[in-house]
């Protein structure tokens, strides 16, 4: 069934009149009266709807059923990624969304070479949010992960430590595996934190420990900054029974 | 320690005289006499060497120690990926190498839109092998995964079925999870098979079952053709105790 996203405020009532992107999307798909489609608010609610009429500016639908999305992960994983070159960050936003991340947060660290300035940030965030929305739509998710940024590394540690489990991945850690950190815990939320191209500094890793994060290895092969969070996310989804 | 690859035939004897890329690499790094470096043959052997002299065309080394690489995965995973757009295939070659794949194999399937012709293939393979070599070097691997291609889908099924476990991932499979397929087995080799942008056809999935492959889900979210093999590979590495 065709599925698309529309703002939550357009999804009230028993008949829906969608405008903007959703209507244009409907027109492109040449939806016909009587067809069934799914409209999702990007916050976890999915409406099964019948097309009443489809024009280039408005798509009229009658709601047949409203239910919570069943494609969301059981455990809420937030991906904290140090600012990296733009294409890498965008890559992680797209892939982490597919893999089921609840939220994606970019933060600065000592060795970050790429960091958007205050003025450029708003545009970047808009672009990043669009990448997440498009990946969510394509992968059939019911929730569009929020993409946000933090001003300091300390902010990232503080926020990550509020999860049931906060993990920082460090290429020089050898003892604590991700499995050790996950096993035997009943987790509802996990935060994972990874460094930029040049890695995290040792004092930053120490700072993370002091903030209550577990410092873990992702194995003996050194992963690129865009590979590490996705590898960890896939493993956590596997561990928590998603596939 | 700086590590680089050199052809196995240059790594014989107690003193090494490297030429070509390795020598140029040494010159770029401004190696000095007395420094320790690692030279790897890309087939699992690592030499710890002391620099005797470094010029732009030759790098002279004395071998201090020769040992098997300790960064290879315990289980040999071969990634069979249907031909996809060039950037996706190259992406998977790079990332699968980082994640520890033993081999990467491209094969045709019914809905493949991109498929190199016979003439272009040799050049492509050379390029793909270079991507694997570069990713192996960067991630500290001792083995450069071989990148190969197969002429038919049936060939891919036949080869994959020779592993201890052959798995095909299919977005319409709901029952068999990767965990179910892996659990309780003592595996030395695993083959994973994924489809192209447009997915595999149902008859192809049936063909895989008949060839003895397990047909598994990667969860409720639909993954892109370049995300699925990497997600599965990360999960298998996690399952087999790599991190």
Helix content of chain A: 25-40%
**Residue-averaged pLDDT of chain A:** 95
SS elements, strand count of chain A: 11
The low-confidence parts of chain A are none
Classify the beta-strand content of chain A into a percent band. 25-35%
Structural class of chain A: alpha/beta
- The N- and C-terminal alpha carbons of chain A lie at a distance of 23 Å
- Main sheet of chain A, how many strands, which sense, barrel? 6 strands, parallel
Q: If interface size is counted as residues with C-beta under 8 Å from the partner's C-beta, which chains form the largest one?
A: A-B, 33 and 33 residues
Taking Cα atoms only, what radius of gyration of chain A do you get, to the nearest Å? 20 Å
The strands making up the biggest β-sheet of chain A line up spatially as: 8-7-6-10-9-11
Instruction: Please tell me what the overall shape of chain A is.
Output: elongated
Order of helices and strands of chain A: EEHEEEEHEHEHEHEHEH
What is the count of helical runs of chain A? 7
Task: Please tell me about this protein's structure.
The structure is a homodimer of 243-residue chains. By secondary structure, chain A is α/β, with parallel strands linked by helices. In chain A, 33% of the residues lie in helices and 26% in strands. The first copy, chain A, has seven helices and eleven strands. In chain A, the strands form two sheets. A six-stranded parallel beta sheet of chain A has the order 8-7-6-10-9-11, sandwiched between helices. A five-stranded mixed beta sheet of chain A has the order 1-3-4-5-2, covered by helices on one side. The relative contact order of chain A is 0.15. The mean pLDDT of chain A is 95.
